[in-house]
Adenylyl-sulfate kinase
Amino acid sequence: MALTNTAPIPELYVSAESAQKLKFEAGNLLSWDLTPRQICDLELLMNGGFNPLKGFLTEADYDGVVENMRLADGTLWPMPITLDVSEKFAEGLEPGTDIALRDQEGVILAIMSVSDKWVPNKAKEAEKVFGADDLAHPAVNYLHNIAGPVYLGGPVTGIQQPVHYDFKARRDTPNELRAYFRKMGWRKIVAFQTRNPLHRAHQELTFRAAREAEANLVIHPVVGMTKPGDVDHFTRVRCYEAVLDKYPAATTHMSLLNLAMRMAGPREAVWHGMIRRNHGFTHFIVGRDHAGPGKNSQGKDFYGPYDAQDLFKKHQDEIGVTMVDFKHMVYVQEKAQYYPANEVPEGCTVLDISGTELRRRLREGLEIPEWFSFPEVVRELRRTSPPRAKQGFTVFFTGLSGSGKSTIANALMVKLMEMGGRPTTLLDGDVVRKHLSSELGFSKEHRDINIKRIGYVASEITKNGGIAICAPIAPYTATRRAVREMIEAYGAFIEVHVATSVEECEKRDRKGLYKLAREGKIKEFTGISDPYEAPEAPELRVDTEGLDVDYCAQQVILKLESMGLIKA
């Protein structure tokens, strides 16, 4: 009997000849440019990673998945995989139409036959899938502030795989992995899912898991989209490669998974299990708080530490993969080795370094002990995240027109240039309007575009080790958050709320703008006819009333010093 985990599984690609023909025909179709997340989803649809899905979910399938983790026909499937598009694109689109799906370079990857078009209840989706309609959850924020308002569903015909220029030899489709297991004669294979660099505790844990299951081990890290703020996948893969030779080559393999994670905890664990089954795995390691996004807006964890394991166990037979539950591993000083936290010999000293503590040590250039991580891994991490005083960062002033943002920003720039050491750029509102955004007006949409442009330039400056100082009004929380995420991928983001009252700003009104707004001659003026959403938890709040500029700029300098961004 053929073993099911090594037999080929169905893909959605057509043959090479048909692909050529379809590509030609698809040139005349209405086309949608896929977002990075949609490209990840499409790749796993086409290569069988999302089997049994034949395309993006129809409305009936979506409703079932949101409600009770089942497709309309009753099959287990925990995650909505939908094509979200803009209202404008959806407007003239009738179900029954074919559309071309293109990557960001315009290459046609697939044709989708649109069978359904609907406007989802996103609050309900957040509640059911992620457990709470709380914007502190990255996927809920994505749902409300980034994803399009209209969903399309329907089958997909695959024309070609998305192109990856990096780590080509390490990327395997489900069928390529299955063929590898067939060739190697591997029957039991345990997958280790990770979005973080591997340290000694992980190695110990994966060794134990493989031993317990008497299985071969595949390190199967996610290199699609993880959580904003995670270590970038280039650095992580270099870290994995650095530790791979600590594993026995005959029983261990590493393969990269181009998945866009949702950080959905329990549902995500079930989803990961099903994706691993499609890749030919028989066992899967599920950790404490598997795929958890961290804290909610009340400061509590979104999911309980064992919720993911419980839900996985409940559906294990249907998932078709055996769970290996992950013990929290700690280092026991007296024994000089790792133990599961619940098996530590009595009276022994436990040493552990949390992720937060590790980041602090990297940031401050402190020692990272060898019992915790491999010198090769630490070396890679230090290359990507040098100590804070050598990293780029962005200071982002926000406040009403006339609050004093630009004046303080100017003073701050001069103080930082006096210190020297890093190139410093001031992205002032008026200057940006002139050079980057001259065609934009002042509608909400245009103001958002302007702020995101400023954020993009600041993120590039930060990435390259410089200091960016921005001083736009930036009245909307969601836009400021988007800019924060753009920048925090590369360095620190310091939000400074210049909290001068509207009355004071009106008194100072040099340009006479408030007067014109009061007379109705300027529409959508922040603070008068348009809201200003004050930041709830900025890194620093300054009120300029009765204080001189020098003092306010000095407060920012002190904040930067306390964060380790400039040397005291």
User: Anything to note?
Assistant: The radius of gyration is 26 Å.
